[in-house]
Inverse folding.
């Protein structure tokens, strides 16, 4: 969320609807370098900003939350690269 403290971490998602890769849910957060993944999305050097839908009542990002993020070039989320709304990433339309 813009203005929040930054954290460098891996995020593991599972899909409630795996074949179309929809309804992604966060299942783990941390150093997951040793975890196996079917797909990966490398956002090194960018900011993954959770939307309000992904945050709990206290503004935290937790396992079990819907995977809804903005990937941006800045921590405020003004220069959006794409959005991830529980499924395949959607590029920002110019």
């Amino acid at each position: 969320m813009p203005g929040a403290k930054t954290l460098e971490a891996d995020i593991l998602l599972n899909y409630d609807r795996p074949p179309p890769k929809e309804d992604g849910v966060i299942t783990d957060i941390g150093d997951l370098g040793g975890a196996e993944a079917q797909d990966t999305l490398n956002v090194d050097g960018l900011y993954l900003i959770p939307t309000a839908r992904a945050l709990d009542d206290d503004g935290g990002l937790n396992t079990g939350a819907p995977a809804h993020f903005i990937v941006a070039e800045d921590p405020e989320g003004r220069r959006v690269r794409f959005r991830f709304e529980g499924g395949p990433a959607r590029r920002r339309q110019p």
